[in-house]
Design a protein that fits this description.
Blueprint: H1 3-26, H2 30-44, H3 48-59, H4 64-82, E1 90-93, E2 98-104, E3 107-111, H5 117-131, E4 134-138, H6 144-160, E5 168-170, H7 176-184, E6 190-193, H8 197-204, E7 210-212, E8 218-222, H9 228-240, E9 250-256, H10 260-269, E10 273-274, H11 277-287, H12 302-309, E11 320-323, E12 340-346, H13 349-362, E13 366-372, H14 376-385, E14 388-393, H15 397-400, E15 434-440, H16 452-469
Parallel strand pairs: 3-4, 3-6, 4-5, 6-7, 8-9, 8-13, 9-12, 10-11, 11-12, 13-14
Antiparallel strand pairs: 1-2, 2-15
Helix pairs in contact: 1-7, 2-4, 2-5, 2-6, 3-4, 3-6, 4-5, 5-6, 9-10, 11-12
């Protein structure tokens, strides 16, 4: 059979099986789904290193030690943050005289990216089980082998602990046409789109409900009042993490002129290679040849990028730092997805805001920004002036924006809201995977039902009848 036709037939088969699994999951008690998820996560945790090594080997993106951490976090935090107790059952809303009945979406099509392929699958797969949804993963082609292995293991663990067959599946022929057909399919109830902007836009055009996210391009302002050594170390650490492939990684440091020299010196002490003017020009041309992005730098080691750009950097170099004078059209104001950090000297916070707005025009709207300052009002001023929805203050944006070490909700799917043309402005948790039917009784002044427990029993009986009729 023709490859394109075979990929479309695969979509039909995947969706047919997913619908059967979704029906079985919707009839499952939330407590049972919760128990299965809490067995799958610990079962996958010991495999974090195996999948980290396999992902780096296949994709050539990122660092094994950082992907181990991502995989472990996905196995643990998804359960502690979103699975502390069963979700999606029948619950009474105290003081509202209202009963809510959880309804899973049904069949969820989930796109997985190339930079965090397995962690994203663990995260979305566990959310699917907690919320009693069937899930079909559309992987990035460069990570197909490791993603398919992870899905198979996740599936088999779930079935072992009581999940229905095909509760999680993966597209083995992820062509653009087939993925778009799956997103448009009549059995698709929800799309969770993580990945490149073109595919996210295609998800929104599908006609099916979509939770999509946008690309990052993170500016970090370093104020004159900042602890410069700490700021430099945190920016370099954020850029080094998984070789800068995370969308929350610092893209350009906007450094106050009074501490600019000290910041660059601190970067060197933190293990960065600060490029001279000739190296900066060569690096710019390598990352953005003729203005177009060179995908071969994504998540590569700094010394490899430097070598390919025509100069030498130490093998233990953490980041390549490229200082440049910004103008609105400068290519280094774009996202780099690599351990390449742009640095711009600015006269004050308003100057930094102007440069950050130029960055917004090149990408990253609604995503992430950072600031290092001792002034709380200045941090709020920075946030209010710019269309970013998560601002990390005196911390590392890479993990802070995803809730790893801040009070933001933990996630592997960062919403970009109105500014980024996304339906989601916050860090995605379990909420989009469920809807709640609300049964509203008169409030006490209008005559409340005398036996709320009897009402609950009636509703549960009705739910049982609906399950039988599906």
């Amino acid at each position: 059979m023709d490859k394109d036709l075979a990929s479309l037939q695969e979509v039909r088969d995947l969706m047919r099986r997913a619908r059967v699994a979704a029906k079985a999951l919707s009839a499952m008690a939330p407590e049972q789904a919760w128990d299965i998820a809490h067995r799958i996560g610990p079962g996958l945790y010991p495999r974090a290193e195996h999948y980290a090594k396999a992902a780096v080997s296949e994709t050539q993106i990122g660092r094994v030690e950082d992907k181990v951490l991502k995989n472990q976090i996905a196995c643990e935090r998804t359960l502690t943050d979103y699975g502390a107790q069963p979700v999606g059952g029948v619950r009474r809303v105290a003081g509202k005289n209202m009963i809510e009945i959880g309804r899973p979406a049904g069949v969820v099509v989930a796109l997985s990216n190339s930079t965090s392929p397995v962690a994203t699958i663990f995260f979305k797969g566990l959310l699917a089980m907690l919320s009693r949804n069937a899930i079909v993963v559309s992987p990035h082609p460069v990570a197909l082998t490791v993603c398919s292995e992870a899905v198979r293991e996740m599936h088999d663990l779930g079935v072992q602990f009581g999940a229905p067959q095909d509760w999680i599946q993966i597209q083995m022929q992820p062509t653009i046409a087939a993925t778009e057909a799956m997103m448009r399919h009549e059995d698709t109830d929800l799309i969770v789109a993580t990945g490149g902007t073109p595919m996210v836009r295609a998800a929104y055009r599908s006609g099916n409900p979509t939770v999509g996210v946008g690309s990052g391009n993170t500016p970090v302002y370093v104020d004159a009042s900042a602890d410069v050594a700490t700021a430099a170390e945190q920016v370099i650490a954020g850029k080094q993490f998984d070789n800068g492939s995370a969308c929350t990684s610092p893209s350009v440091a906007l450094v106050h002129e009074s501490v600019f020299k000290a910041f660059l010196e601190a970067c060197v002490r933190s293990g960065a290679h600060v490029c001279n003017p000739r190296e900066s020009e060569a690096l710019t041309q390598h990352v953005y040849p003729n203005g177009g992005f060179n995908a071969k730098v994504v998540g590569r080691d700094p010394c490899v990028i430097a070598r390919d750009a025509g100069f030498a950097a130490a093998t233990d170099c953490r980041t390549l730092v490229c200082a440049f004078a910004a103008n609105e059209g400068h290519v280094m104001l774009k996202e780099k997805l690599s351990p390449v950090l742009g640095v711009v000297c600015v006269s004050d916070i308003d100057d930094a805001i102007d440069v950050a707005r130029w960055m917004l025009k090149r990408g990253g709207a609604g995503h992430t920004a950072g600031i290092h300052s001792t002034c709380e009002r200045q941090a709020v001023y920075w946030a209010a002036a710019l269309d970013y929805y998560r601002i990390v203050v005196n911390g590392i944006t890479t993990n802070g924006a995803t809730g790893t070490d801040t009070g933001l909700p933990y996630t592997f799917t960062v919403g970009t809201g109105y500014a980024g043309k996304s339906s989601l402005g916050e860090n995605m948790g379990i909420e989009p995977w469920l809807n709640y039917k609300r049964v509203a009784f008169p409030l006490p002044a209008g005559g409340a039902p005398s036996d709320p427990d009897a009402v609950r029993r009636i509703i549960q009986e009705e739910i049982a009848v609906m399950h039988k009729q599906r």
